[in-house]
Amino acid sequence: MGDSCQLPKVIVIGAGGVGIIGALSLCYKGLSNVSLAIRSDYEIVQKKGYKISSCDYGQFESWKPNHVYRTVEDASQSGQFFDYIVVATKNIPDGPAHSRVPKVIQPLVESNHALSEGRQTNVLLIQNGIDIEKEIWNAFDRKKYHLNVLSGIQLIGSTKVAPGVIDHVGKDQLQVGAFESENEDAVKAAKRFVELYHNEGKNYAEFDASVRYSRWKKLLYNAAINTTTSLVNLDVPRCLEFGVDRKSTEENVFRPAMREIVAIATTENIVLDESLVTFFVEITRHIMFKPSMCVDHEKGQLMELEVILGNPLKIARENGVQTPVLSMLYYLLVMVQGHLREKNGLLKFDESKAELVETK
């Protein structure tokens, strides 16, 4: 390990269960200088650090990374150039403007550019969905900012159970790749991040050479099962068991929805084998598991509806693919999301006129 000042600098945005274990994994490896933008828990963490119970790393009573910042803006004024900006927040483009990913990372992209115009900035999106990189490229001139956008697909069971308290129960598995596989600098940056992150015998990290394939593959589960559970507010086993003759959910919702994802992906020359449909139907059949959208709905928080379901349906329309099941799920969930947006003050409905009068 070299002088910490010479190590690549990584900032993690999104101090929930995923972001904290990500920062811990980087610190444990010791090959990078790690910062966290914390927001709500800043005072507690600054004073006491994080209390973490991790299946990968054990128990910590007062853990902190190398640096903690209250906000992304504070980090951008620190005089540090961040080689990797890791975004581990939910991706909700129909949420408040200030929480959209380009807006969140803008201070750091700008400060990096001001500090060193020719140096490469790598934005790693550890987030769900398809086409999530496009809003970054639409917001920033990649040549001006020397910007690479990397994909992170993570399987992890980690939750912030209280302010400054993390419970990590499912082994961390991370795939990192370049959205542009032909971009040698981005590929090199993705492979380097895997080296910074992987702790042999603790977590599992690998380079993802086929990002588009990996994201379509994960959508088989998320677009069919994550969405359905959030619509009916049930865990996966109950969704399956409560169907007509304990069959209709699988045969009339999950499998047809997944096959529509297969059909959309095929128009991009991405082949998802039928065996994957069975694999994802079965993977949580006997586990008391509520997917992320269901949990968000229960908590009254906005769901990742557009990146998980809205974006694949846009591609389906462009490519002429019929999607009756996915479309129905989407139209119903748009109403649920509208209810959540209203509760969160992002919509205003005038009951005297029985109509929507304002959106934010």
UniProtKB/TrEMBL annotation:
<dbReference type="InterPro" id="IPR036291">
    <property type="entry name" value="NAD(P)-bd_dom_sf"/>
</dbReference>
<dbReference type="GO" id="GO:0005737">
    <property type="term" value="C:cytoplasm"/>
</dbReference>
<dbReference type="InterPro" id="IPR013752">
    <property type="entry name" value="KPA_reductase"/>
</dbReference>
<dbReference type="InterPro" id="IPR008927">
    <property type="entry name" value="6-PGluconate_DH-like_C_sf"/>
</dbReference>
<protein>
    <submittedName>
        <fullName>ZYRO0F06028p</fullName>
    </submittedName>
</protein>
<feature type="domain" description="Ketopantoate reductase N-terminal">
    <location>
        <begin position="10"/>
        <end position="180"/>
    </location>
</feature>
<feature type="domain" description="Ketopantoate reductase C-terminal">
    <location>
        <begin position="211"/>
        <end position="335"/>
    </location>
</feature>
<dbReference type="Pfam" id="PF08546">
    <property type="entry name" value="ApbA_C"/>
</dbReference>
<dbReference type="InterPro" id="IPR013332">
    <property type="entry name" value="KPR_N"/>
</dbReference>
<dbReference type="InterPro" id="IPR013328">
    <property type="entry name" value="6PGD_dom2"/>
</dbReference>
<dbReference type="InterPro" id="IPR051402">
    <property type="entry name" value="KPR-Related"/>
</dbReference>
<dbReference type="Pfam" id="PF02558">
    <property type="entry name" value="ApbA"/>
</dbReference>
